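name: query_chain
kind: protein
chains: 1
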Amino acid sequence: MSNAAKSKGRGAVSNPQSRFAGSRRESFDDGWLRELDELPALETTTRPERAHSIISRNRSPDVPFEQSINPYRGCEHGCVYCFARPSHSYLDLSPGLDFETRLFHKENAVELLEQELRRPGYRCRPIVLGINTDAYQPIERELRLTRRLLMLLAEYRHPVSILTKGVTILRDLDLLADLASDNLVSVSVSLTTLDNDLKRTLEPRTASPAARLKILSEMRKIGIRPGVMVAPVIPAINDHEIEAILEAAAEAGAVRAGYVVLRLPHELKTLFRDWLQSHYPDRADHVMSLVRQLHGGRDYDPRFGRRQTGAGIFAQLLARRFEVSRRRRGLDQDRSPPLDTSRFRIPGRAGDQMRLFAG
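structure:
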């Protein structure tokens, strides 16, 4: 049975060991599998974990935010290109199929966030929800962890930004509209392709392209001026769609646009090669040749200023195409003011007065 058959409905077609594993395992066909029934579909498991902290601080000059919260570890969306996959190695799990089937949720996230917001000296700056793994991945429908975080942020009138490809965000239009009324929220949608067939293999459990365009239009209806992120741009796979994606996004209501080229840190380079060989064997070598051109002859160049956009002639061509199309669609004229940090307040809680007499 092929790897693709065994992982049907998933992004990764393999489950390699993490880079920290002390020993190596190698699979081989001893003939027994040919005598067995087809393996059942891989199931998703979720486990709670007690986090020690909840707000991550960013020091990278490549990304325009200082604070982020990731309610979940791993992501059922199964995007084969996800730059967060290698982080599963820190859990002694594979960045492959484990990343999209063995998930963790931070059960004390709301409690930790409130403690942080009430900490003396806390300085209010916008928080980005779900930058590492999507805060609106499928398990959010039942766990509602992202919604509870949004409810707390709304109570404190704290600004928040969201980047997602999950249609579950539409469930929370009430909270988003409330935040939008005070300029406390921004939303961007990640749109990788308009091709449903490509989406099914590249990012199998994400919302359809049409559903993501609907997110943009629904945001406009409640007073949010949304953005679109074309990410990642993959040479010879979806780069030809740049202009069409921006046109569709602008028509749906997007007011700004950005892009990121494919990044392949650590184990991700092997996972992506496996995916290419499984789904696009005729062009796999060509795709990787172009990827290396973007990253100075390597699979990935992690240096600030290059890792997001690449370098070289092909990167320059992508940047030029993107800028021309963005300008043509009016996606370079967003004049939205920064999110408002002046409305932040600490609501009263039972026992607050007693603290005046403590110590």
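note: Confidence is low (pLDDT under 50) at residues 1-6, 27-39.
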